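INFO  loader      accepted 1 record
INFO  loader      residues=426
INFO  predictor   begin
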Amino acid sequence: MKKHFLSVAAGSMLIASNLAIADVKVGYIGSLSSDTGLSTLRGAEIAIEELNAQGGLLGEKIVLVKADTGEDPTEGIKAYEYLAETEEVDFIISGSIDDVSLGWMPRMQEYQIPTLDTWTSYVGIIDMVVEDYEIMKPYFMNIASDEALATLYIDFGKDVLADKMGWSSVVILQEDTAFGNAISGLVTDALAPNAGIDVVESIVYDIATVDFAPLFSRAQASGADFIYLISSVNSQVVSSQYVKLQVPMGMTGVNVAALGQEFWEDTGGAGGGISTLSPVPSVGFKLDPVSQAFVDTYQKKYTSRPVMPHFNGFNAYHGVKQAFASAAEAGGFNNTTWVTAMEKQDLTLKLDGEVWLRYAFWGNDEIEPRTGRTYPHNVRFDITAPYNEASPSMVVIQWYEDGSTAVVYPDKYKTGEFVVPSWVKK
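INFO  predictor   done
INFO  writer      dumping C-alpha cells
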C-alpha cells in the first residue's frame, strides 16, 4: 500500500492534504483469452468487489490490473515485470499454466511480491519452496500439486480401470510440455507397481498437432488396453478426433478442455466418452452452499464463456480473500508477517455436515502420511479415503454421449458411473 500526500503552498501557509491516491493493487497474470485464464481473473474480480464493499484493506480501496501472458513463457516474464515495475502491485494472483509460471518464477524470487498460483500444479515449484524457503516464501499454490493428483489417479487406475474394467496395459499419449512431462513421469512410475497396469509405450506430440489419426493408429498397434491422454493445450482437437475416428480403445487421463462446460460445444458434440481427472470443484461436482453462492454471483455477472468457472476460478475467489485477510492481520503485504498469516489461513466448506472442500496450506515441516514428503505452501489435500481431512486432490469426471457429465470417482463425490463409449468393445 502506498500513500501519496498532496501539498499546496499559498503565501506563507503550507496546506497539506492526507489524500490516499494509490490504493492497494492486485496484479492478475495469465491468459486473457482462455477459459482457464478468465476463470482466475473473474474469481479475483468478484472477490475484490466483495472486499471493497466491506471497506477494502485497512480503509483503502483494492484495484485490479491485468497482464496477459498469451500462455507463452516469454510473454509471461514480460507480464510479471510489468506488474512489478510499472504497476508496482502489492499482490499477484496467477492463472498461468505450468510452463508460464516456471518462466516468471525467477522474477517472483527477485521482486519478492506475494504471489498465489491457482492453476499451475507442477510439484517442482513446491520442491523449490522445500529447497529454499527464504527466497520462495512469498509464493503459494492453492491447487493440489501434480504429484498429489497423480497419486489419487493411481487409485482410480486400480479401483476402476484394473478391477472394474479389467485393463492391464496402457499407452500414454502426451503433449510436449512441462505439465505433460511431469504427469507422464508420475504415471509411468506409479501405474504398474500400484495399480498393476503396465505402460507399454509413451507417445509424445507437439501442441500444434492437428492430425491425430497416425498417433491413434500407433496407440492401437501397441496392443494396450487403453489410452492415457495428457493434454492441457488444444485438448478439444485430440478429443473430437478420438470420437469422430471412433478409436476402438478406451481413453482417459488429463484433458483440460473437458474441464469446462463449453467442451461439448467446442467439440461439436464429439465429446462423449471422454473422461479426465479434474481438481475440484469440477463439472458434474456437487457444490456446497458457499461455492454455489459464488457460482450464482458469477453467472449473474458474466454472460460470456466460461459460463461456469473452472476449478481455478474458485481457487482465485477464495485465495484472494485469504490473501487479504492475511494482509489485514499483518498490516500489509510486503513483509514476513503476511507470509506467516497466510500460512495459517484455513477455510473448510461442508456439505450435509461433511468436509467437502478445504482451502488451507501444508506447513513447512508437515509430512503428508501417504507420500511421506512435505508440500510447504501447497494447498492442503487428502489423498486417502474417506477424505475427511480436506478436499481430495482430484476427482475423475466423464462426458457421456448425450452431453451430460458426472463425477465417477472417488465414491464420496461420484454422481455417475465410468463407462467406455458405445463403439468400444467391452
